[in-house]
Automatic annotation (TrEMBL):
<protein>
    <submittedName>
        <fullName>Uncharacterized protein</fullName>
    </submittedName>
</protein>
Length: 85
């Protein structure tokens, strides 16, 4: 759903994208709800992809340090989906 707000300031969370357009009354903000990464994976058919198996040492290392590529992967996946590729 798209909603038009006529305001100069607006809080935007990570699930929304904003486009700004000049109008005679000032700045208009068009908000569009963004799809969740899990929804994007399902639409693209990536939800059935099995992750690679990690050795016990690698699994322990990943649990301690976290997934360094998770944010990057999600950002690239979202851009890929939004470009319509």
């Amino acid at each position: 759903m798209t909603t038009l707000y006529k305001t100069a300031t607006l809080d935007i969370d990570t699930h929304q994208r904003a486009r700004y357009a000049k109008s005679s009354e000032g700045v208009s903000v068009v908000m569009q709800e963004r799809k969740d990464i899990e929804e994007i994976k399902e639409i693209l058919g990536f939800n059935n992809t099995e992750p690679i198996a990690l050795s016990p040492g690698d699994r322990e290392d990943a649990e301690e340090k976290g997934d360094a590529f998770a944010e990057w992967y999600e950002e690239e996946l979202r851009e890929f989906y939004e470009r319509g590729e």
